[in-house]
Specification:
The protein is an alpha+beta fold. The chain is 65% helix and 7% strand. The chain contains 12 helices and 4 strands, in the order ααααββββαααααααα. α7 runs parallel beside α9 and α8 packs antiparallel against α9.
C-alpha cells in the first residue's frame, strides 16, 4: 500500500469482501443478468421473447395493429396497410434496457438507500431531464437505420441499392469507399453490429461482383464500423449527457474526424493484399 493516502488505507483495511461486492453491484449484477438471459439452456431467453399470449391487441386504423404480449413484447404490424412482412417489434424485457440496467440500478438503490443524498424521485427526475434532448436525436437516428436496412432480405433496402450501384459505377475504386461505408453505418446507428447488418450484404455483393475476396472486404467493413462509433452523433450526445457537457457535439466531432479518417486509410491499405488474394 505504498503511496496510498492514509485515509484510503483505513478505508481499504475496514472494507470486507461483502462491502466490495455490494459496492460493485451495478457492474457484476449487470453482467450476471446479461449472461442468464442470453444462454438458451437456462430458458429465460425464450420466456422474455414470447409474442403470445397477447395482453393487448388493438387496431389503430391505418397506422397498423398494436400488440403487447405477456412477456412485454410490443409489436406493430400492418403499418400503413403495408404487407405483414413490414412490421416492428420491441422486446422490452430482453433488449438491454429494463433488464439488466434498470434492475441492477434499482437493486443498488435499495441497498444504499440510507446513504442517498437525494431522494429517488429527485434522482429519476434529474435523469429524465438529462435524457430529454438526447432522446429526440436517438429516436431520429434509429428511424433512419430502420429505413436504410429494409426488410425483404435487403432486396428493397436503400442501403443495398446504393451499394450495388456504387460498386458497378466505381469498379475497383469501391475499395476506397468500403471502410467509409462501414463508418457511415456506425455513424447513423451507433453500433458496429448494426453497421455490419446494414452494409455487410452490400459489401459481400460488391466483392463478388468485382471478383474480390469478400471476407477481406467484410473485414474492412468491420474496421470502418468500429471506428465509425467515434463520430456517431447519438454516441457523442449520450456520452456528453452522462458527463454533463452540453452543446459541444460540434467541437468533439472536429477533433475526432481526422483520427477516424487516418484509421480508415490505414485499415484499407493494410487489407489491400488480402482483397486481391
Amino acid at each position: 500500500l505504498d503511496g496510498v493516502p492514509e485515509a484510503d488505507r483505513d478505508l481499504l483495511a475496514s472494507s470486507s469482501i461483502v462491502d466490495v461486492a455490494l459496492r460493485t453491484m451495478p457492474l457484476w449484477l449487470t453482467v450476471v443478468l446479461l449472461i442468464i438471459t442470453r444462454i438458451e439452456d437456462i430458458g429465460l431467453k425464450e420466456a422474455l421473447t414470447e409474442k403470445e399470449p397477447l395482453i393487448i391487441d388493438w387496431k389503430l386504423g391505418s397506422l397498423g395493429q398494436l400488440t403487447l404480449s405477456s412477456a412485454f413484447v410490443i409489436g406493430l404490424s400492418n403499418i400503413l396497410g403495408a404487407p405483414e412482412k413490414i412490421a416492428w417489434s420491441f422486446q422490452m424485457l430482453y433488449v438491454p434496457f429494463i433488464i439488466p440496467f434498470f434492475v441492477a440500478g434499482s437493486a443498488t438503490l435499495l441497498v444504499y438507500r440510507g446513504e442517498l443524498r437525494s431522494s429517488p424521485k429527485q434522482i429519476l427526475g434529474g435523469v429524465a431531464r438529462r435524457m430529454k434532448k438526447p432522446l429526440i436525436a436517438l429516436l431520429g437516428a434509429l428511424c433512419l437505420v430502420e429505413l436504410l436496412r429494409g426488410k425483404d432480405v435487403n432486396a428493397d433496402a436503400p442501403a443495398y441499392i446504393i451499394g450495388i450501384r456504387l460498386s458497378e459505377a466505381l469498379s475497383d475504386a469501391f475499395i476506397i469507399l468500403s471502410a467509409l461505408l462501414g463508418a457511415l453505418g456506425a455513424f447513423f446507428s451507433g453500433s458496429t453490429t448494426v453497421s455490419n447488418l446494414t452494409f455487410g450484404a452490400v459489401q459481400k455483393a460488391a466483392a463478388l461482383n468485382l471478383g474480390l475476396n469478400y471476407e477481406a472486404l467484410l473485414a474492412v467493413q468491420g474496421c470502418g464500423g468500429s471506428i465509425g462509433n467515434a463520430v456517431c452523433l447519438s454516441n457523442i450526445i449520450a456520452v456528453s449527457t452522462v458527463i454533463g457537457v452540453e452543446n459541444q457535439e460540434g467541437a468533439v466531432m472536429k477533433k475526432v474526424v481526422p483520427i477516424v479518417a487516418c484509421f480508415l486509410v490505414i485499415a484499407t491499405v493494410v487489407m489491400l493484399p488480402f482483397l486481391y488474394a
